[in-house]
Specification:
By secondary structure, the protein is α+β, with helices and mostly antiparallel strands. It folds into 2 domains: about 5-195 and about 340-350, 2-Layer Sandwich (Ribosomal Protein S5, domain 2), CATH 3.30.230; about 200-335, GHMP kinase, C-terminal domain (Alpha-Beta Plaits). The chain is built from 10 helices and 14 strands. The strands form 2 sheets. Strands 1, 2, 3, 4, 5, 6, 7, 8, 13 and 14 form a 10-stranded mixed β-sheet that branches. Strands 10-11-9-12 form a 4-stranded antiparallel β-sheet. Strand 3 (about 50-55) and strand 4 form a beta hairpin. Helix 2 (about 75-85) packs parallel to helix 3. The protein is elongated. It starts with a strand and ends with a strand. The mean pLDDT is about 90.
Amino acid sequence: MKPRRAIARVPGKLMLAGEYAVLQGSSCIACTVDRWLQVDVVAEPLGSGFTIHSDLWPEALNGDHLPPLLVQEEPLLQLIAMVRKQIPSLTDLSLQVQSQLQVSHGLGSSTAVRLAALLALQLFHQAAADHSKSERSASGASDLLWSCAREVWQLQLAQQGFASGYDVVTQSAGGLIKWQASTAPWPGPIERLPPPFSARDLSSWVHVWVGGRGAPTATVGGRTRRWLQAEGLNETLIDRSDALVQAIWSQCAAPSPDHWTQLCAAVQAHRDIFTRSPAYPTSILEALATLPGFDQTWTFKTTGAGGEDALILFGPREALTSAFQSLEALGWQELDALFIDTGAAWERDYP
């Protein structure tokens, strides 16, 4: 029986450590946040065709006749064009995107829209031999979800020329994870901390600030990767990134003064690599480095492509008053979001 509606929801994500090094097989740490992108696929009367609604465009688009230039530029339309080739009969539906993920914040909006759209379309198409009036997934619990996640990663790789897949793995699995790329089997082991740890615990000492230009990953990421190679810094990056991943993981697992000292030293060593990189926000480093407690009671690093997306400040909130004021003066703002333990989820309704 054809479903009446299929819905997929994908959370935003943030990489805490491992950027660029994860592309070379090293580990990274990432976590989901409570900002969501949702795709609704709804059955329409026979002959209605395939319509696409999104706040990216002022009017609905005809999914049967997509403008080639838009397909090249827009992750959602690339995904839909691919699905239409695979399943030509998938029509008489409307697809609606609702997003809380601002592109410039680096929360994985392009990955989220691909994953949510592919999951919702596959759920809508998939014949169900046994179903009730409504069915709902547990977060991150579906074989179909992981199949869609792999396909999204391969699309990223084809579009950008590089992609570890950490973002789609994080958004599918949910919560705080430690992961390194694996191709057989994919996604490979996903490491988690045991209870009573919860991703929400991070919010007491990990603070995310946004306000960068949000340049495309392919542009800034490619430039920084070439710079690392030209400067002969890849081996140094791997060593320092691995040390930072371990320091953050240790502080999460067992907060202590010793682990905090190690974390601050690891952040500083990692940051020192990137301060000369093409996209590094030197004005922010200059504003923060002279403040009391810098790299001792609190510290900071860039994330994402490298200063174009979000900043991460580590430390207790009471130690960060001056840093927060400095960032506000530079036009940045704290992200109003919490770290969460949940990943992608879906539901499907039948007539």
